[in-house]
Each structure stands twice: as structure tokens, then as C-alpha cells.
């Protein structure tokens, strides 16, 4: 079974000083409309055949025609000119304009006087009251939901601030420990550097001392060689003298 949609539009037109209320019941291929000004009422039952014919005249699918009618009669569209005029014999003609490809067009539907205006008016008022109750309930539910979300948001914000504070404290502690370890490493590096420098200086002094000793030893050898040569020369001279005798 098709489930209809319902709308109700409060409409002010240039021809009427008081607003009219248009209630629509929408099906996929047809719709029913009723109008009241608070005193009198009118109805229009657009059958599936009539809607199909109208849609064909406008080169539209039936579903598009119904959707567009619902859009203009469910909510007052800015820029559209609405009219609710006498059509003779107690009939009324409801019209509204729209633009298509730069051309201003108008749709019209004829309404007949309701057989029971009080019943139609009461039905529209009941629908408005029920809709108002539903809207009020939705407002209450959304308000409660928003209050709950607000409380949760505040709680999340509080937790976020707490986590941020704990994070800052943790980073401070870690940085302090890291700084202590870093300073300790620097001190050890300075100690090692000083030790290496000291060992290098000591080694350098030992090398200089060893070099000086080597030079002294070489000088003594040269003297010994000169002495040996002198002795040999003297010995040779003596031998030759003895031979001359």
C-alpha cells in the first residue's frame, strides 16, 4: 500500500487579506488538496489520469510533476507568484508561477467548494496541532540531546586539558632526566679528552727525552772512533821507524 506524505502551507496572496491554509496529501502519481480560510473550504482531488495528462502536456514524467507540485504547495517558494481567485459558481483557482529555461510559466488547479467546510477546516487544524506537537517533542528531544552533547563536550574538554597538563609534566620530567644524562655524558667526555691530552703530552715528553739520549750516545761513539784512529796512526808510524834502522 502506498504511504502518502502530508504537507500544510500557510499562504498569503495579493488577492486575500487573510492567509489561507493548503493541506496536501501526496502519492507517487496523484495528490489531494484542501484549502481553508478559516470559514470556508475547498478541495481538489487530482486523479492519476489528470496528473498524467498535465505531465504529458508539460513534457514531464509524472513523478517530476508531482514532486514539483509538492515543492511549491508544501513550502512557499521565493520568487513565485501565488494566486487564489474566484472561478465562478463558488469555485476557486489556485495558481503559482515558476521559471523554466528563462521563461516564466504558471500552473493552475481548480477547487470546488467542500461539502463540509467545518470538517475540512477541523481536519487542517488537527493536522497543524499534531504537527506542532511533533515539532515540540522533537525540540524537547533535540534540546536534551544537545544538553547531553554539551555535557560530554565539556567533559572531553576537561579530560583534554588534564591530559595536556599531564603531558607537559611528563615532558618536563623526561627533559630533566635527559638533561642530567646529557651533562653526565659531557663530563665523562671532558674527562676522557683531558686524559687523552695528558697521555699525549706525556708520550711527547718521553719521545723528546729518548731522542736527546740517542744524540748523546752517538757523540761518544764518534770520539771513540777518533781515538782509535789516532792510536792506529801512531802504531803505524812507530813500526816504520824501526824498520829504517
Fraction in helix: 55-70%
The SSE order reads EEEEHHEEEH
Q: How much is the radius of gyration in Å? A: 57 Å
State the low-pLDDT regions, or none.
231-245
Number of extended strands: 7
Main beta sheet: strand number and arrangement? 7 strands, antiparallel
Structural class: alpha+beta
Span of the ends, CA to CA: 167 Å
| Percentage of residues in DSSP E strands | 15-25%
Q: What order do the strands of the largest sheet run in, or round the barrel if closed?
A: 1-2-3-4-7-6-5
Family: Belongs to the XRCC4-XLF family. XRCC4 subfamily.
Biased composition (Basic and acidic residues): 193-205
Domain XRCC4 N-terminal: 19-113
GO molecular function: DNA binding
Question: How would you describe the overall organization of this protein?
Answer:
Helix content is 62%, strand content 22%. It has three helices and seven strands. The chain has a seven-stranded antiparallel β-sheet, with helices on both faces. Helix 1 (48-57) crosses helix 2 (62-74). Residues 231-245 have low confidence and may be disordered. Belongs to the XRCC4-XLF family. XRCC4 subfamily.
Amino acid at each position: 500500500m502506498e504511504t502518502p506524505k502530508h504537507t500544510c502551507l500557510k499562504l498569503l496572496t495579493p488577492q486575500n487579506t487573510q492567509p489561507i491554509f493548503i493541506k496536501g496529501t501526496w502519492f507517487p502519481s496523484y495528490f489531494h488538496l484542501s484549502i481553508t480560510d478559516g470559514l470556508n473550504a475547498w478541495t481538489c482531488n487530482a486523479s492519476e489520469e489528470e496528473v498524467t495528462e498535465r505531465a504529458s502536456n508539460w513534457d514531464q514524467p509524472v513523478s517530476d510533476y508531482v514532486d514539483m507540485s509538492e515543492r511549491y504547495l508544501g513550502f512557499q517558494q521565493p520568487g513565485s507568484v501565488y494566486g487564489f481567485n474566484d472561478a465562478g459558481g463558488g469555485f476557486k483557482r489556485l495558481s503559482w508561477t515558476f521559471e523554466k529555461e528563462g521563461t516564466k510559466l504558471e500552473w493552475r488547479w481548480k477547487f470546488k467548494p467542500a461539502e463540509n467546510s467545518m470538517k475540512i477546516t477541523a481536519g487542517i487544524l488537527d493536522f497543524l496541532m499534531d504537527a506542532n506537537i511533533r515539532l515540540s517533542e522533537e525540540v524537547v528531544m533535540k534540546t536534551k540531546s544537545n544538553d547531553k552533547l554539551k555535557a560530554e563536550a565539556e567533559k572531553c574538554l576537561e579530560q583534554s586539558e588534564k591530559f595536556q597538563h599531564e603531558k607537559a609534566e611528563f615532558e618536563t620530567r623526561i627533559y630533566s632526566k635527559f638533561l642530567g644524562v646529557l651533562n653526565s655524558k659531557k663530563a665523562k667526555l671532558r674527562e676522557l679528552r683531558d686524559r687523552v691530552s695528558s697521555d699525549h703530552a706525556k708520550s711527547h715528553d718521553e719521545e723528546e727525552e729518548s731522542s736527546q739520549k740517542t744524540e748523546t750516545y752517538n757523540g761518544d761513539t764518534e770520539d771513540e772512533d777518533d781515538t782509535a784512529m789516532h792510536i792506529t796512526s801512531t802504531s803505524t808510524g812507530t813500526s816504520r821507524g824501526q824498520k829504517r834502522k
